Prior knowledge:
Membrane topology: Multi-pass membrane protein
Strand content: 5-15%
Radius of gyration: 30 Å
CATH class of the largest domain: Mainly Alpha
Structural class: mainly alpha
Organism: Halalkalibacter alkalisediminis
Distance between the termini: 61 Å
Number of strands: 8
Keywords: CBS domain, Cell membrane, Magnesium, Membrane, Metal-binding, Transmembrane, Transmembrane helix, Transport
Mean pLDDT: 85
Oligomer: single chain
Subcellular location: Cell membrane; Membrane
Transmembrane segments: 288-305, 317-341, 362-384, 390-415, 427-450
Amino acid sequence: MVRLNNDTRDEYANYLLGLIKENELEQFQEDFLQLHPTDQADFYLTLEKEDRQNLYQLITSEEMADVFQALEIEEQKDLITEIDHHYAAEMINHLYADDAADFLAELEQAEALKILTAMNLEDANDVKELMAYPSKTAGAIMTKEFISLTSTQTAQEVIEQLREEAPNAETIYYLYVVDYQQQLVGVVSLRDLITAQSHELVKDLMSPRVVSVASTTDQEEVAQLIKKYDFLAAPVVSPAGILLGIVTVDDVMDVLEDAATEDLGDFTASRGATDVNVTAFKAARLRAPWIVLLMFFGLITAGVIDQFEDTLSQIVLLAAFIPLLMGSAGNAGTQSLAVVVRGLALGTLEKKGLFKTLLREFNTGMMIGLICALALLLIIPIFYGSFILAVIVGISIFCSLSVATVIGAIVPLIINKLKLDPAFASGPFITTVNDILGLLIYFTIATSLLEFL
């Protein structure tokens, strides 16, 4: 259980709420501001509207910015409607430019423009610059609050600069070196700076080999780069090499979370509808197309069964194993889909080799199919008294799982070659395709061995 000092989170929240009720506002203000912004936001969400209004009176717009930044976007929108226009603009002024841009991009254009107009001119211009970049690019998620140096500064001069500028910078662990044209020429770590002699020059401390990204780079590529190098931040440059901003690791975590959410939506054929705050109408509108499409695929499944009506009419017991075969093939295909999509996302698939990956999935499918077949060869004769039936089902599941893993692996590869998101090869789609193939295999084998039943 999370604790704050010697109290649980709930106990401390009740303590703060009691201070408000008892009108001990100075004590509340002191204790509230000592909390981490995440805990401040959690407490804020427990308040009734009247108590929230008191909170806005007790803390400054700058202090409220920390609370605001820790809230989800829908909660931020609700907060904005409860405060006056001037307080809102001052609060947005104190956000990092990338966070302010992300929030304002979610508002109606007129409302966003109204806030931008009331903001500090310099801050507003930074936010407008970020909002002008295409969505989901490095430029759109970078922040303008960073510290840049020149190569002729001494370590002591940089320390003095940090004392002045660090409070407003999003991170100071990396300090970027620019020339007189503001082109990125090097990077200095805070560790190297602190351990250097005060008279040493930045040019002797910096590393000239800087890994950077273009402002148009896709945000997921930036996330993978930061993950690969274990960076806390990555510089963003223009085509001319001018330092425009930095992307920090906290922004990357948001990008990866959004990407994972999108992939989950694609896997379940519900992209855009995984958020519990989405209305039922919107969720139905987003999910219905896939369901309807898969329903028509289901008609193909029904057609396959209809084609083997004679086989079923002679041995009705065959129908009992249809769900087993369809479910197993669909599950195996979805597992292979997850492996390939994840490999494509991380770039590990190219290192491994496509053919080797397909061969591995095929071998995996055969091994799983063999295990399942052997289990059925033991179980079916005991419960149904027919060894031939066990052979039919066993061979069918062996072949079905072998094919299903290949289908689950090859479909996202084809989609990726078409320059589409491989996650669009969603679980339900792969499952339906494997259902059809599994039934064809099952009834073909059953028809061939019918005379022995």
